What we know:
The protein is of the alpha+beta class. It has one domain: L-fuculose-1-phosphate Aldolase, CATH 3.40.225.10. Helices cover about 40% and strands about 15% of the residues. An 8-stranded mixed beta sheet has the order 4-3-2-1-5-8-7-6, sandwiched between helices. Helix 4 packs parallel to helix 7 (about 210-220).
Amino acid sequence: MFFSSQGYSKIETYRQISEEIIAIAQRLHRKNMLAAADGNISCRVDKDGVLITPSGKAKACMHPEDMALINLDGRILEGKPSSEKLMHLEIYRQCPEAKAVIHAHPPTAIAWSIAQPDFAFLPSHALSEVILSCGDIPFVPYARPGTQAMGDNLRNFLPQYRALILSRHGALTWGESLEEAWKGMERIEHSAEILWKAHTLGGLTFLPDEEIAALRAIRQRIGDQLL
């Protein structure tokens, strides 16, 4: 039975959240941000419980019964969770407002981290929408997938940043809902693609300093959520 250790009402809640996770995984796949068994999505379901996508399963072909359930200490309660669960758990521990985490492999964003390994941020000062929607998108130093080092590398960026590029690996977003985390992931790849096209068409140009300051002031008034 699906999440057999839980009561009926929790089973129904978990199934509903699982279906939301699957819908977002399918969106990511259609946008070419997931391939095969890549990526993982999680959602905090109560004070200590986290639903997370399974290890080794193609994310475009999941069913609610495939989801795993873990607690914030990493103990597996149901299923076979993603091997990258430590990265998700680090976010939930460091960011009390986090309710959902998405890790995907957006091609253009990853390509920037390979081609420009010295970049600390995606060039937000070239594109107003990056500043307005998420402030900045930093590059997190590379760590071997599935290791605690991935979570450790995130600490310097949390809770300030909700949209991050994992160098030579992928991207990571978190939010107060699955929808917010999804919007952040779409924003990362869309912005990375615009900047790549500008770079190939003749090079990046940047907004004036006073305009950047004005945009950052607007962003501060908007708040922390990804748009």
